[in-house]
């Protein structure tokens, strides 16, 4: 291991050399208060930044032992430290990126100070607390992973500028964020305790017969339609109707009060802009814990809940959609339905059945993002197009059988139709972001104006069908995830896309994929599925085992650079299966290869 003086000497010696000579920096340096590991150097100034790690022993960082004993504690503590480090780097960059009052002297290279001050790149986190690879906490050390854009003038090394970045700027950020004297360990402990309290509520929802919980005082609206930040001015705090009020005793000793959404079929209604879709969006995001001050930190949903929507144009491979669609004029068998271009109704049926396959206990549906003919079919249309000529059995006629046959609950937003009142166990009306329990009123309306006959579990040919019978598992043909066109590992492109060879997986409709780091982890997990999945393994089993492997071995097991990249975030099994299902090259070891033109 080299020391600080060796690093300084090397950087000064590199000044003016070709950019590729930066590779001489690779290795580990004792910086006094921490070790600096240069794991990968960029090949030219326009390549992705170099990857480095800051490594502190337990004695150096002196983390309180009581907040890092268990895996959940370490996840939360790592999240807190990563946020602090990002804030320290951002504050440093903001202060140093101001235009200089006078021309900088030559000590730090021959470029402007503005070009040299934002070289350190700390990974940003969203409102969710996820397991990430940014900070690793073990029994003997803490690692912070980051990137550095090594300075250059054209394609020549600016060694003095790099010296400033690595021996002054970076240590200052480490000291500000991580040194015991500069840390707020009370805030660290509070962050960890909130996370543990949130996990406790999520894990005990089932014991209380609930699928979700919304705490009193929650701020559900966001600052903008494309933002995950809370609305700061004018937001109406959430208040619980008495009939749905529940309380949870937390591990911290606190008690949290709010609204419980029971198992079964819950319909959320209300006028436009009164908060019904906002409530559902909060419930959708409630599968992840949130940071304090987010407003939604006490919106807790079962961890396996899945948001379902229509998704025109997606591919479908070997999915049994017969509970909703059967007897197609083309004669295609919908028990093993395959298409390269699904319609709105077909895609929503496939999304729902795939969610059941992935083990969800709760589906979340908003009529605004649903296919109308998948959701409902009124009496006038039935008179014009008789049921025996309509291959689609709408969700309104299947929602109750789905609950009875599978135990899967539904939370549904309906603003334009009362068709689901007959099936609903609970109806919540949102009025100016305040909920009211209107179940009895909705039931009376349903009695006075019945929607129509419920499904009698027959298909268009009059044959009796068990709508949600036990399914034959889809057996993954793992080599299909590794097409011939693929010469490099899978690559994530932002939050919504994964490149596999010459093909792209479009995940834009998978709304509970909330972080680009999750997509990056999914890209690597798909590589693992392609190469390690044994023969004759069901897709859901392969995905489950891959997620268990991430939890057991950590996200570092997905990395090709020993602790890098530091931006990976843990996905759920539901999103891993969603990615597999949307790969157009997917093939199954069982089932027909017949494809439908939907």
Q: How do the strands and helices of this protein lay out in sequence?
A:
Blueprint lengths: L1 E2 H11 L12 E4 L4 E6 L9 E8 H4 L9 H26 L23 E2 L13 E3 L3 E8 L3 E2 L2 E2 L1 H20 L6 H20 L5 E6 L29 E5 L5 E8 L2 E6 L5 H10 L13 E3 L4 E3 L7 E4 L17 E3 L4 H14 L4 E5 L5 H4 L3 H6 L14 H8 L2 E5 L12 E6 L2 E4 L1 H10 L42 E2 L4 E4 L2 E4 L9 H17 L6 H15 L19 H9 L17
Parallel strand pairs: 1-2, 13-19, 13-20, 15-18, 18-19
Antiparallel strand pairs: 2-3, 3-4, 4-7, 5-7, 6-7, 8-9, 10-12, 10-14, 11-12, 16-17, 20-21, 22-23, 23-24
Helix pairs in contact: 1-4, 3-4, 3-5, 13-14
Descriptive account of the structure:
- This protein is α+β, with helices and mostly antiparallel strands and 598 residues long.
- Helix content is 29%, strand content 18%.
- It is built from 14 helices and 24 strands.
- It has helices at 4-14, 58-61, 71-96, 159-178, 185-204, 276-285, 344-357, 372-375, 379-384, 399-406, 439-448, 516-532, 539-553, 573-581; strands at 2-3, 27-30, 35-40, 50-57, 120-121, 135-137, 141-148, 152-153, 156-157, 210-215, 245-249, 255-262, 265-270, 299-301, 306-308, 316-319, 337-339, 362-366, 409-413, 426-431, 434-437, 491-492, 497-500, 503-506.
- The strands form six sheets. Strands 1, 2, 3, 4, 5, 6 and 7 form a seven-stranded mixed sheet that branches.
- α1 (4-14) packs antiparallel against α4, α3 crosses α4 and α13 (539-553) crosses α14.
